[in-house]
Amino acid sequence: MRRTILYSTTCLILFLAGCGKEEQAPFDHPFIHIMNNNSSTETVNYMANSVRTYNIYLSSKPLTENLSVSFEVTPGNGLKEGVDYEMVTPGNSLVFLPGIWDMPVRIRWKASPDLDPKKDNTLTIELTGNSQNLTLGLPGPDQLQKKFVITKVK
């Protein structure tokens, strides 16, 4: 009985002494990314007549200042603005106010019966900068979710 108590006490002391010894700080690397359904790509039917929303997300601790995020929209050689699509979101930047975690980029897709499937029918939304020097895309060398590519398909 005495041996069991001594053994239990020793184990408890070693357990308590070991707590916190190897603790690591929680991962806290703020970043901005763009995705839809956890993907960096999407297809749109060539006859679509709809407005679609593509969200840019902020992943960080709550901010105390506004965050301006800039982006660039680049069409492939098979798409023309005003014919195949229209930007509903004006300009090329969005402002995240404190407490806001996602902001929309809206695009109106137009029916394109003459779409040439041999051309580059992609529209790329790429994050290009921000006012607080946060990481663009997921942290890591691949910068995943820094770009979102929409392909108009027949």
UniProtKB/TrEMBL annotation:
Q: What is this protein called?
A: Lipoprotein
InterPro entries listed in its UniProt record: CalX-like_sf (IPR038081)
